[in-house]
Amino acid sequence: MQWYRRPILAVADFGPVEQFTRTNSLFKGLVNRFVAGETLEETLPKVEQIASSGITATLDELGENVSSEAEASAAVETFIRSLRGLSERSLEPNISIKLTMLGLDLGTEIAKANVLRILTVAREVGGFVRIDMEGSQYVDATMDLFEQVHDAYPAEVGIVIQSYLYRARADVERAIARNARVRLVKGAYSEPATVAFASAVDRDDNYLRLMYLLLEKGTYPAIATHDTALINAAKAFAKDHGIGLDRFEFQMLYGVRRDLQTQLASEGYRMRVYIPFGTEWYPYFTRRIAERPANATFVLRQFFDRGKAD
Ligand code: FDA
Q1: Residue 268 Cα, ligand 1 centroid: separation in angstroms?
Q2: Beta carbons of 83 and 127 less than 8 angstroms apart
Q3: Where do the DSSP E strands lie in 65-180?
Q4: What residues does 95 pair with on adjacent strands?
Q5: Which of 3, 181, 193, 271 is the Cys-Cys partner for 158 at CB 3.0 to 4.6 Å?
Q6: Which residues are catalytic?
């Protein structure tokens, strides 16, 4: 992990910083850059607009670590509405979900029942559900739950694997063995050196190796990164190994490297954008800020200058 990520994520966890960021209108522009809307209804037209430029989407209602079954059930309802809303507009019904939003902290069985409710609808509308990967304390439970639901819904559900984790290669091999669709990412959480590479070079080297493995042996892998070196390596590898452009896709986040998204789509590559929406944007937003020092400097400057503005 880059040296600046951990302190930025720690500062973001500090109550007054969160309160300030949530309530200060100065951040509206920056939040809107990464988060498409507060409601599904506000967000669907943006998916339509993006689709018109040949780019597909995966919709994510933001939220994590719910503390009641009622909150988890409300999330299920929104995910189901998302699948149906996309399908009714003739958009690909593709969503991303987080297990802690579906009650993983309350018990695996609760989360599993909620995921199955979503997958039933996904099958009905011909859709696809990606289970995002969260902090390392959830990886075992997420992989196990994923494999259980993948047995019943092999075409409808996929997983995310983070290249910063030492265990990533073993997880990629497990996924390949069961023909499961993998989204490969670098990883966005603050992790200790006991479980994750401390250096960005090691994390990126691992990404490259796992990306090649997935392109060669995986089932429709998603290369999810904005890193041009890795994207160029994927393009070259696919060309050299005769891997058709319909056998994998690139994925990027809403609001990040739009120029590159459009360029890849126009070159004929499959390009999908991860589109988050909802009111619980703070943790997602802080991870995006921590990825780029320029973004973090802006936020911290506003925070420390607030006395002057008050
Ligand atoms: P890297 O961070 O090295 O960035 C490469 C370049 O991209 C930067 O130099 C900059 O130009 C640009 N860039 C990257 N982030 C930016 C930002 N926030 N603002 C502005 N520019 C930026 N993680 C996870 O742990 N679990 C998950 O389930 C997912 N899911 C997911 C889905 C999709 C579609 C994507 C693209 C990413 C994720 N991630 C994720 C996040 C991922 O782990 C990682 O934190 C980010 O993608 C940033 O890493 P890059 O691969 O882009 O490389």
Answers
A1: 22
A2: yes
A3: 94-97, 128-131, 157-162
A4: 59, 129
A5: 181
A6: 132, 183
> Ligand 1 pocket check: which of 225, 228, 270 to mutate, most ligand atoms within 8 Å of Cβ?
225
Any idea what DSSP says for residue 25?
A: G
Give, as one character, the DSSP assignment of residue 278: S
From residue 34, alpha-carbon distances to 49, 148, 208, 211 in Å are 16, 32, 26, 26
185 to 19, 118, 176: CA distances (angstroms): 29, 24, 16
Greater model confidence, 145 or 21: 145
Give pLDDT, residue 193. 95
Q: Which tens digit of pLDDT belongs to each residue from 70-108?
A: 999 999 999 999 999 999 999 999 999 999 999 999 999
- Contact 102/74 with Cβ under 8 angstroms? no
The mean of the pLDDT values for the chain is: 92
Handedness of CA 84, 159, 224, 188 (dihedral sign): positive
DSSP state of 185: E
30 lines ligand 1 (CB under 6 A): no
Give the atom of ligand 1 at the shortest distance from the alpha carbon of 252.
36
Mean pLDDT of 41-69: 95
- Is the shortest distance between the CB of 288 and ligand 1 below 6 Å? yes
Q: Is the CB of 295 under 6 A from ligand 1?
A: yes
Residue 261 alpha carbon to ligand 1 centre in Å:
13
**Which distant-in-sequence residues (6+ apart) come within 8 Å of 76 by Cβ?**
102, 114, 117, 118
Output the residue whose Cα is nearest ligand 1's atom 21.
256
* pLDDT (tens digit per residue) in 7-29: 777 777 777 777 777 777 777 78
Ligand 1 atom having least distance to the Cα of 274:
34
Q: Is 189 in the pocket of ligand 1 (CB under 6 A)?
A: yes
Check pLDDT > 50 for residue 266: yes
CB 61 within 8 A of CB 278: yes
Q: Using a 6 Å cutoff on CB, does residue 249 contact ligand 1?
A: no
d(CA 216, CA 226): 21
pTM, two decimal places: 0.93
